[in-house]
Design brief:
About 65% of the residues lie in helices and about 0% in strands. By secondary structure, the chain is an all-alpha fold. α1 (about 15-50) packs across α14 and α3 (about 70-75) crosses α14. The longest helix has about 35 residues, at about 15-50. It starts with 12 loop residues before the first helix and ends in a 6-residue tail after the last helix. InterPro entries: MetI-like (IPR000515), MetI-like_sf (IPR035906). Keywords: Cell membrane, Membrane, Transmembrane, Transmembrane helix, Transport. Belongs to the binding-protein-dependent transport system permease family. It is a multi-pass membrane protein.
């Protein structure tokens, strides 16, 4: 006797809605748990910056101080070190590096996206392959090169390489450029526009989200640059903010409350710029993955 195959039971609208609510609740729980994991270190930084010197060294550690010591910000910033000078140094390096990233990445990204040449696909593949090379591998050859030409203890090793392109930024811009309709470029060429004019008048105005994402990536990366700054900069007056934070540690004690206060001041520009460019940044990162032509 043949057994009849059981047909799948259809769900009622009420059951479907319960399943959707359960899935949505599970997603919210996971997102909240992830947010807590990422926010806890930031909250610890804030509370530590408001502790007294005694609470700073208390064991076991306490989350909240008995009273808020706002003077830690003034004591840390206006102490024995010139953190205003460190910030100006960081602003100079970051601004010039961002300009170098934009100038050096826009041109090759446009060429890979809208211009055809022999072996262009191969060259683009080689460019992407360089993204797999760890940055630490190039530290020794770069140091030998820059020390040979006398660039040690200057800002040139931190700024000049940024004018030679970053593979990740070129890739992101190229992907965004491919989403712009080709008809606009063809019409401009028919009207006699040069490639640079097309890039300046058509591509860049339509690529503000991608440019905002590149600027934010570049700003954060150069603002927080520490490893190469320590390698090349020797004079205290030329230190950057990340290097200055390391000077809170000495052979006797570490002023963690003042260090966290200065760290909060140092990260304030990053937070402000992110919230200002948040919509453009998210839109730029989203749209860079749409086209694959």
């Amino acid at each position: 006797m043949l057994l009849k195959r059981a047909e799948p039971r259809s769900l009622t609208p009420a059951q479907t809605e319960r399943i959707r609510r359960a899935q949505r609740a599970g997603a919210y729980v996971m997102l909240i748990a992830g947010a807590v994991v990422f926010v806890l270190p930031f909250l610890w930084m804030i509370t530590t910056s408001l502790k007294s010197d005694a609470e700073n060294l208390a064991f076991p550690p306490q989350w909240l101080p008995d009273s808020f010591h706002w003077e830690n910000f003034a004591r840390g910033w206006a102490g024995s070190l010139d953190y205003t000078r460190f910030m100006l140094n960081t602003v100079l390096i970051t601004a010039l590096s961002m300009a170098g990233n934009l100038v050096s990445c826009i041109l090759p990204a446009y060429a890979f996206a809208r211009m055809r040449a022999r072996a262009s696909a191969l060259m683009f593949g080689v460019l992407l392959a360089t993204m797999m090379i760890p940055r630490e591998i190039t530290l020794v050859p770069k140091f030998i090169l820059f020390s040979t030409i006398g660039w040690v203890d200057t800002y040139l090793p931190l700024i000049v390489p940024e004018f030679f392109g970053v593979a990740l930024y070129i890739f992101l811009l190229r992907q965004f450029f491919t989403t712009i309709p080709r008809e606009l470029i063809d019409a401009a060429r028919i009207d006699g526009a040069s490639e640079l004019r097309i890039l300046w008048k058509i591509m860049l105005p339509l690529s503000k989200p991608a440019l905002a994402a590149i600027c934010l990536f570049s700003f954060v990366g150069n603002w927080n640059q520490y490893l190469e700054s320590v390698i090349y900069i020797r004079t205290t007056e030329k230190f950057t903010l990340p290097m200055g934070l390391g000077l809170f540690t000495d052979q006797f004690a570490t002023q963690y409350n003042q260090m966290m206060a200065v760290a909060l001041i140092a990260m304030t520009p990053i937070v402000i710029i992110f919230f200002i460019a948040q919509k453009s940044f998210i839109r730029g990162v989203t749209l860079t993955g749409i086209a694959g032509r």
